[in-house]
Amino acid sequence: MKFKKALSVILLSGVLTVGTISCTSKVSDADLKVKVETAVGSNPDVMVEVEEGVVTLSGTVTTEDEKRVLETSAKSADNKAIKSVVNNIVIRPIETNTDTTDLAAKVIDATKDFPSVTATVNDGVITVTGTVEQTRIQTLKQSLDALNPKKVDLSGITVN
Q1: How buried is residue 80: exposed, middle or buried, by Cβ count under 10 Å (0-12/13-18/19+)?
Q2: Looking at the structure, do residues 85 and 106 belong to the same domain, yes or no?
Q3: What span, in angstroms and rounded, lies between the C-alpha atoms of 16 and 41?
Q4: Domain span at residue 82?
């Protein structure tokens, strides 16, 4: 009789364990895709696909660091549901503009709102001199960086 009771308890425990494990909710691939897209959403050039918990990233970025950060972000979107991340992102560096004539014309336009600044172009390097307010130096730097020169030299700038 004790054997039957023990067997019944063991069988009941097994059934409850299996039932509990099978009832745990699994994250669907569609939901997982949304989580990963949110995690890597800062880059519109990256596509996310999910199949049976395997995340595949594809698209283009400009640096190895950006590629690595996107992969890490994807992995951390849901540590339990993601089985693995396949990183098929291709690195395509930004082409540097070394055409002095073209770059000089674009520099004139980029610095038109900075009357106390003078910029020259030589072999793809923009050298800037003059004075700029602290609140506007970042705007100037971003405008010039967007022209894709070899370098922007702001060492001749006085910030006030």
Answers
A1: exposed
A2: no
A3: 41
A4: 23-91
